[in-house]
Design brief:
Layout: E1 6-10, H1 16-26, H2 37-45, E2 49-55, E3 58-67, E4 72-80, H3 89-101, E5 106-108, H4 118-121
Parallel strand pairs: 4-5
Antiparallel strand pairs: 1-2, 2-3, 3-4
Helix pairs in contact: 1-2
Length: about 140
């Protein structure tokens, strides 16, 4: 069920403080450096796409992605305030992000453990192979 009061927009200048607040409100802060505003600032400034969802000005969701706008788009962060989950906000943020990356891109993400069952329900395909070199900090 979509909420017509919610506005979706590109927000490349989103502040690190607002980003931190939505990470906390969504529980994604458990897996992000929410206590390091400078690092959050760098994460935002170096992203190619930052899409926000706002309800009467209040930030209630964000997606942050890195893309080449030609072949692939990595959606690094998808955060929706717990109070707004199960209302279509996450799906719309994904759709807006993918649209801005371009129809020729494949959108890829790594699911948070609690969200693994969400993505198949919105039509995303599970890919079994993913490899990573972990962060050192």
């Amino acid at each position: 069920m979509a909420n017509s009061r919610i506005l979706y927009a590109l927000e490349p200048d989103l502040s690190a403080r607002e980003f931190r607040d939505i990470l906390i409100a969504s529980t994604l802060a458990e897996r992000r450096p929410a206590d390091d505003l400078e690092r959050l600032h760098q994460m935002l400034r170096n992203a190619d796409i930052v899409v926000t969802a706002r309800d009467e000005g209040r930030l209630i969701g964000v997606s942050r992605a890195v893309t080449d706008f030609a072949y692939c788009c990595y959606l690094s962060d998808l955060a929706v305030d717990v109070a707004y989950q199960r209302q279509g906000v996450g799906k719309r943020l994904i759709d807006e992000t993918h649209a801005r990356a371009g129809e020729s891109t494949t959108l890829i993400l790594v699911a948070a453990p609690a969200a693994e069952n969400y993505y198949p329900r919105i039509g995303m395909k599970h890919l079994a192979s993913c490899w990573a070199i972990p962060r050192s900090r």
